[in-house]
């Protein structure tokens, strides 16, 4: 092991290893770069006085070969409070590849023009830290992408252009997601990784204008059964169903 293999941990990870996990020099951990690569590493130096600092050395690169059977996107109308953070964290654990936060007609959590730039930047940074932490916690070597806040049209255009786009709707005319997958099955064993997007509405539900927009773009309106689920629950139930159907759970 040479000095070329050593590196300094950033402040957050140093704090976690030194002050939270109480690791000592010589103990090993797994580091990942967020793009699918992992390394077994060993702590070489620590400092717990004041601000935690740590230095580590790479032992070996690990085999992280894993073929995902579906490219799963979660498009979530931004809910109030910390519900978006919950969707990001649990969606990452369920294998979501990327997230599309968007504003809808009945979105409760909107920024005024005066606070738009600064708060939007702060919020985006926090959301990215959440998916990074969730990836680390659940053992993923990759980190999902959190896209910039979009509008519904952009989300629908992207979802329908790339593959299957499921527009979650509690309306009476919507088939269940399970029934839809029976009628128009996804080719999970295709040589090209299938793409599926789940589009989840706000707490107040979709407007008729938004339903018409989804229909124009060719999104498939689907329901999750007779019960009306909370917006943050609906995203995760649909993600679980698709992951199960793909054979990833």
Number of helices: 7
> What's the CATH class label of the largest domain?
Alpha Beta
- Gap between N and C termini: 38 Å
3D shape: elongated
Which structural class matches the secondary elements?
alpha/beta
What series of H and E elements makes up the topology?
EHEEEEHEHEEHEEHEHEH
Largest sheet: 8 strands, parallel
What does this structure look like?
- This protein has 249 residues and is of the alpha/beta class.
- It folds into two domains: 3-62, Beta Barrel (Ribosomal Protein L25, Chain P); 71-245, SPOUT methyltransferase, trefoil knot domain (Alpha/beta knot, 3-Layer(aba) Sandwich).
- Helix content is 35%, strand content 25%.
- The protein has seven helices and twelve strands.
- It has helices at 11-20, 83-93, 116-138, 152-162, 177-183, 208-217, 231-245, and strands spanning 6-8, 28-32, 38-47, 53-62, 71-77, 98-103, 145-146, 150-151, 164-168, 175-176, 195-200, 220-223.
- Strands 5, 6, 7, 8, 9, 10, 11 and 12 form an eight-stranded parallel β-sheet that branches. It has a four-stranded antiparallel β-sheet with strand order 1-4-3-2.
- Helix 2 packs parallel to helix 7 and helix 4 (152-162) runs parallel beside helix 6 (208-217).
- The longest helix is centred in the middle third of the chain and has 23 residues, at 116-138.
- It is elongated, with a radius of gyration of 21 Å.
- The two termini are 38 Å apart.
- The mean pLDDT is 86.
């Amino acid at each position: 092991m040479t000095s070329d293999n050593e590196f300094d941990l950033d402040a957050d990870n140093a704090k976690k290893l030194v002050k939270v996990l109480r690791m000592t020099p010589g103990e090993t951990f797994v580091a990942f770069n967020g793009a699918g690569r992992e390394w077994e590493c060993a702590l070489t130096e620590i400092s717990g006085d004041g601000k935690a600092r740590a230095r580590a050395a790479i032992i070996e690169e690990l085999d992280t070969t894993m073929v995902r059977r579906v490219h799963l996107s979660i498009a979530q109308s931004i809910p109030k409070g910390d519900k978006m953070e919950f969707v990001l964290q649990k969606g990452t654990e369920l294998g979501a590849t990327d997230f599309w936060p968007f504003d809808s007609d009945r979105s409760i959590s909107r920024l005024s023009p005066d606070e738009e730039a600064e708060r939007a930047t702060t919020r985006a940074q926090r959301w990215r830290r959440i998916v990074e932490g969730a990836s680390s916690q659940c053992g993923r070597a990759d980190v999902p992408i959190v896209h910039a806040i979009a509008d519904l049209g952009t989300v629908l255009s992207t979802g329908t252009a790339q593959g299957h786009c499921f527009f979650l709707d509690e309306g009476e005319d919507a088939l269940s997601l399970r029934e839809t997958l029976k009628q128009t099955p996804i080719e999970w064993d295709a040589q090209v990784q299938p793409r599926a997007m789940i589009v989840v509405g706000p707490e107040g539900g979709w407007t008729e204008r938004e339903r018409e927009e989804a229909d124009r773009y060719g999104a498939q309106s689907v329901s999750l059964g007779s019960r009306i689920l909370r917006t943050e629950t609906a995203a995760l139930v649909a993600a679980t169903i698709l992951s199960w159907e793909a054979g990833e759970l």
